[in-house]
Every structure is written in structure tokens, then in C-alpha cells.
Amino acid sequence: MIRPGSVSIVGAGPGDPELITVKALKAIHAADVILYDRLVNEELLSYAGSGSIRIYCGKAPGQHAMPQGTIQRRLIEYALEGKRVVRLKGGDPFVFGRGGEEVLALAARGIPYEVIPGITSAIGAAAASGVPLTHRGVAASFACVTGSRCPGESDGQVGPPIRWDLLAHAVDTLVIYMGVGQLKEIRAELLRHGKAGSTPVALIESGTTGRQRTFVSTLTEMHKLAAAVQLSNPALIIVGEAAAIREQLRQLQDQASAMLG
Ligand code: SAH
User: Fold this and answer.
1) Which of 61, 116, 230, 244 sits CB 3.0–4.6 Å from 200 for a disulfide?
2) Mean pLDDT, 10 residues at a time, the chain of 261 residues
3) How far is CA 255 from the centre of its chain?
4) CATH 3.30.950.10 domain span(s) along the chain
5) Is residue 59 annotated as part of the catalytic site, yes or no?
6) Tetrapyrrole methylase domain spans which residues (predicted)?
């Protein structure tokens, strides 16, 4: 149970509010303060105590998101006041969630913390769209990769370059986060490094939510399809033969329902 004067860094899951852990729900319920992100389903806040403080850290329309340094300072300040603090994030805190930076900041100040994992959007969206990330005889490995060249750029932090040359060959299924704005560059990199243009690609928008849209294309064609359907964030790009399983599933379902008449 979350203690006064401590911080829980909590994964809220991929979008469907039921895809959260029991432990995370208990932490939300017990929290005095909740700092939550844009990708967190706000329905989850209904589990918070009525007296709790809720602070939105995402981007309000026309405004900037709360800077990472400010979020970290707030976590520390509330914990030092003796509050039970929950830092609620979409998906999993340690998968493109900046949870690592937050625990480092807390550890540096000696603030007690815990990390409660969440279902990351790759796992959630794969399940909800019929794209197995591994599949016997088809895909024996998957990797989660950022499609944005410079993760955290707005805070002046530039990540190491992404090794598309290695990823194109070493991993069977690539799940690309934050890639919608970079589809052409991702396509160019993978093709340049020898990934077949016919490789199946699934594009999944708002995975696991009632607004989910899924499209299947190929590496060559994916940017055109994304433009045609106005693919928008949050969305994932899954590149690999496993993406074709979705089509296989659909065909089987159609055949089965035709047989049942
Ligand atoms: N910590 C989060 C990722 C945050 S980065 C996690 O574990 O899932 C933000 C990116 O996550 C988005 O650009 C998008 O690529 C992906 N994403 C998050 N939620 C999503 C959803 N419901 N459907 C598709 N992609 C999602």
C-alpha cells in the first residue's frame, strides 16, 4: 500500500480503462495527489478519492506540456509534504514514459518510490487488432522502437541515433511508437537498409479504445494509406510478417460466417 511521503509511478495501460492492474487501481484510490498525462484515460480518475488533488501534465490545446523538470519538482515537493503521490502515465512508465528520469530524480532526493507496471500500447494494440507480435514460424522476436528522431527534444535531450540498419534485419516484428509524423523517414530508412517493400505493416490508431482504427498495408505503401485515412495520434506502426496474420484471421472469420450462413 502506498505510504505517505512516497511516490508511485503508475502505468495506466494502453487506453481501455479496464486494462489497468489491481495494484495501480489501489494506488489511484489511496492517492492524495495524482499527476496524470495526456494518454491516461480520464475515466480512471473516477477511482480517486474525492478529496484528492488531480494535476494534468499533458498539453492543453494551444499550450505546452508541463516541462519534465517541473513535474519532477512537483513530485518531490508533494512527497516532502507527506502526501501519497501517484504519477499516472499511459501504457507502462518504463516504455517511452520517462519513468526512468522520474525515479532517478526521486532517488537523488531520497524519496521513497515504487513503479507499478502497465500494459504498454504495443501489447494492448497487438491484442486488440489481431497482430501477434511473435508467431510460430513467422516471428521469433519483436522490438519496441521510437520513430521520433530526437526523443525528448523539447527538453533539450537528444537520444542516441536509432540503428535502423540493424533493426531492419535483426528483429522480426518492429513496433514503432511516436512514428506517425515520421512515416516517410521510417519507410526510407528501412527500405534503404534492405527491408522488403512487400513487408506487411499494421497501423493502429487509439488501440484498445472505442475509437480504435486498424489498417494493414505494406512498407512501400504505408505512408500513402496513412495519409488517405488521416491516421492520427496516438498510433503505432507494426512492421513485419506477423502483421499479415490479422488479414488471415479476417479471411477465416469471413469464411466461417459464410459457412454458418
Ligand atoms: N508509455 C507509453 C508510451 C508513451 S509514448 C506506453 O507504454 O504505451 C506515446 C506513443 O505511444 C504514441 O505516440 C503512440 O505511438 C503510442 N501509443 C500510446 N497509446 C496508444 C494507443 N492507445 N494506441 C496506439 N498507440 C499508442
Assistant:
1) 244
2) 92 98 98 96 96 91 85 98 98 97 98 98 98 98 87 52 95 97 96 98 98 98 98 97 95 93 78
3) 34
4) 122-248
5) yes
6) 7-222
Residues with CB under 6 A from ligand 1: 14-15, 39, 89-92, 95-97, 120-121, 125, 177-178, 204, 206-209, 233-236
Q: Are 202 and 246 in contact, with CB atoms under 8 Å apart?
A: yes
- Active-site position among 32, 178, 195, 222: 178
- Exposed (0-12), middle (13-18) or buried (19+): which is 234, by Cβ within 10 Å? buried
**pLDDT the model gives residue 1:** 73
138 Cα to the center of ligand 1, angstroms:
25
- The CATH number given to 6-119 is 3.40.1010.10
Residues in a beta bridge with 200: 218
Q: Which overall architecture, per CATH, does domain 122-248 show? A: 2-Layer Sandwich (3.30)
